[in-house]
Amino acid sequence: MTKPTLFDQFERTDGAPCRHQEDSFAFRNRVDQPYWDRVRAELEKWYAAYPDEPPYPLRTRFRKRKEAQHFGAWWELYLHHLFECLGFEVEVEPEVGTGKPDFRMIRDSKSILLEATTSSSGIVDEDRRPEQEAAILDAINKVRN
């Protein structure tokens, strides 16, 4: 079975900027601009070297609408690529005692365990309605003035 790609393979024709209601993956998967073509191509190269086995958990998280999942997967992909470029042998999710950290990097008979994580401010305004705000902002952006 051939490993799937991170991004869908189709002819892109929409060069519009990211919409407020659009998640990061959906934008990068959709947008038709030379810069984003290069970004997608580079990420596909990184992913081709990443040992993601069925059911492809990294790819699944990378394609999530939920930004925390998407950016977490991107961070793991980036770190895997970075440490390989630095000359480490990178083992993904090694079994260590009762846990499975994200990586074990090995070089010169020494190893480092790494749990990759991302963070956000965590500030949540209970009265906000981000979906409605995004819809309103997108509607405003469509108005001709």
Can you characterise this structure?
The protein is 41% helix and 10% strand. It has five helices and three strands; from the N terminus they run H-H-H-H-E-E-E-H. Strands 1-2-3 form a three-stranded antiparallel beta sheet, covered by helices on one side. The mean pLDDT is 92.
Q: CA-to-CA gap between the ends?
A: 52 Å
The residue-averaged pLDDT reads 92
Specify the biggest β-sheet. 3 strands, antiparallel
Order of helices and strands: HHHHEEEH
User: Low-confidence parts, pLDDT < 50 over ≥5 residues?
Assistant: none
Radius of gyration: 18 Å
Strand proportion: 5-15%
Query: What percentage of residues falls in helices of 4 or more residues?
Result: 40-55%
Query: Strand pairing plus helix content: what structural class?
Result: mainly alpha
| Strand order within the widest beta sheet | 1-2-3
Question: Any idea what the shape is?
Answer: globular
Total of DSSP H or I helical runs spanning 4+ residues: 5
Give the tally of β-strands. Answer: 3
